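[Discussion] Sanity-checking designs against the backbone

I'm trying to build intuition for which residues belong where. Below is a structure token string of 504 positions. I'd appreciate it if someone posts a full sequence so I can compare it with mine line by line.
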């Protein structure tokens, strides 16, 4: 193969159009980029909540934030509230950010909090996390530029809730303006090189042949190229993540949108609530081994806060990842690469990660296997660490009220996760593994929220008198509360900066 020039993206939706937008922005007109999709194939549409990493993606595209939020009926997200996960009646928030409170000396804040809490001199951990406090009070703002550099308001971490279909449409316009050619139609044949097995072209039902050097499979769960054609294989995670179905239904809004996603544990899984400007997204992710589809639908419909705007839409999946996300000259991005249920809103992040790593490892000419090997190792690491983080939510629970929760509580968990839990339970220590997605703040909040209380703390904490620790912890709490006081209500911020026109 001469210089790689022709890229064919198979499938639209969020994954396809994110890929098309990013490649067209970064690679420019020297590359020929085509995307094929069919209006006859629906999209999954559960990826309406995101993590803060998406801001970097939009910044790469030089997208105006207010325009993007308006165009996607979006709202802002400071974290995720987990209801009934530790036990029925318990709740906590996993707030985004870079740290809890602020460090003192060599130690993170939570080490001092552990000792103060043990002496009844501190409130819940969430009282010392800006995003959690703001979420609880329904307040939001972007990072302020008119405050001192060290102020918590100078570095506010947030993500978005948005309509994934509108986001795909937004990115389609973006990509087409930069030369991406869209082809409407169904693929009925995949041509392969007789010796190498490389994909050489896809043929549409109308006879159109789309030839390419590199093919990006964004065809969703079916994995048209990566699995149906190349038979790559799949690592199944069902032994740790037993949920295999979901029902999704939108509802009318019943009040201003909360600046957080809510995940409520149910008898055989969990229910999401994602507030947008024009509606609220809801769904029930569940295990078909523990509840029937009809029972799941009844549970979902009985726990909606607003009027259902349609019938629940079913979705089936198997959690896991491809054995290779890059096989020959095919790179799978999005659901074709694997699926981790949307508990921590990682689906769109994994799309973004797949795109960025493809750009980092894009071949110039030929397909040296070392590029694919590196790509596959990085994606496998990312999938597996996110999987472990999600498994943590299920396994660290006191619930034993249903067979599903008894299974989750007693199941064998991956060895690396077991080590991380044991280390934290000993003395509140957590060590981030290289470049994994979730940082220490996330692991600490979820482990504490799920009832993993360390037996002690770092010995350096004892160098400070109890009174001094209590004063430090109290000072952090008061500072953060004062910061939240300065933030406007979430709805007021939207109204002022990015209010969307109601859809027709």
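Best answer:
Here's mine. Compare freely.
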């Amino acid at each position: 193969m001469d210089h790689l020039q022709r890229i064919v993206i198979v499938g639209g939706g969020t994954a396809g159009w994110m890929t098309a937008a990013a490649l067209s922005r970064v690679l420019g007109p020297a590359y020929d980029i085509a995307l094929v999709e069919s209006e006859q194939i629906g999209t999954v549409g559960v990826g309406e909540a995101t993590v803060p990493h998406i801001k970097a993606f939009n910044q790469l595209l030089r997208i105006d934030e207010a325009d993007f939020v308006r165009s996607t009926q979006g709202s802002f997200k400071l974290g995720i509230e987990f209801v009934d996960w530790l036990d029925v009646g318990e709740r906590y928030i996993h707030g985004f950010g870079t740290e809890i409170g602020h460090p003192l000396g060599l130690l993170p804040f939570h080490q001092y909090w552990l000792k103060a809490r043990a002496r009844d001199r501190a409130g819940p951990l969430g009282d010392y996390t800006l995003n959690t406090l703001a979420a609880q009070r329904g307040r939001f703002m972007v990072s302020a530029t008119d405050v001192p550099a060290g102020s918590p308001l100078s570095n506010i971490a947030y993500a978005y809730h948005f309509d994934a279909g509108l986001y795909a449409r937004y990115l389609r316009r973006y990509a087409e303006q930069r030369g991406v050619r869209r082809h409407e139609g169904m693929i009925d044949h995949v041509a392969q090189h007789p010796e190498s097995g490389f994909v050489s072209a896809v043929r549409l039902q109308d006879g159109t042949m789309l030839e390419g050097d590199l093919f990006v499979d964004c065809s969703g769960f079916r994995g048209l190229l990566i699995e149906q054609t190349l038979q790559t294989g799949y690592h199944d995670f069902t032994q740790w993540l037993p949920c295999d179905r979901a029902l999704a239904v939108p509802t009318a809004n019943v009040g201003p949108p909360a600046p957080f996603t809510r995940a409520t544990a149910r008898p055989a899984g969990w229910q999401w609530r994602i507030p947008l400007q024009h509606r609220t997204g809801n769904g029930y992710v569940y295990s078909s081994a523990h509840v029937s589809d009809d029972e799941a639908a009844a549970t979902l419909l009985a726990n909606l806060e607003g009027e259902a705007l349609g019938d629940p839409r079913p979705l089936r999946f198997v959690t896991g990842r491809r054995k290779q996300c890059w096989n020959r000259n095919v790179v799978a991005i999005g659901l074709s690469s694997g699926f981790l249920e949307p508990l921590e809103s990682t689906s769109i992040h994994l799309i973004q990660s797949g795109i960025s790593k493809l750009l980092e490892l894009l071949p110039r000419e030929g397909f040296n296997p070392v590029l694919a090997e590196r790509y596959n190792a990085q994606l496998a690491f990312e999938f597996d660490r996110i999987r472990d983080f999600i498994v943590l939510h299920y396994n660290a629970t006191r619930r034993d009220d249903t067979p599903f929760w008894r299974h989750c509580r007693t199941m064998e968990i991956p060895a690396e996760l077991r080590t991380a839990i044991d280390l934290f339970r000993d003395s509140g220590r957590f060590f981030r593994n290289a470049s994994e997605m979730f940082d220490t703040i996330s692991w600490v909040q979820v482990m504490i929220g799920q009832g993993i209380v360390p037996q002690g703390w770092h010995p350096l904490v004892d160098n400070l008198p109890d009174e001094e620790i209590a004063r430090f912890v109290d000072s952090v709490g008061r500072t953060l509360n004062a910061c939240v006081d300065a933030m406007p209500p979430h709805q007021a911020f939207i109204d002022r900066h990015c209010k969307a026109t109601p859809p027709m």
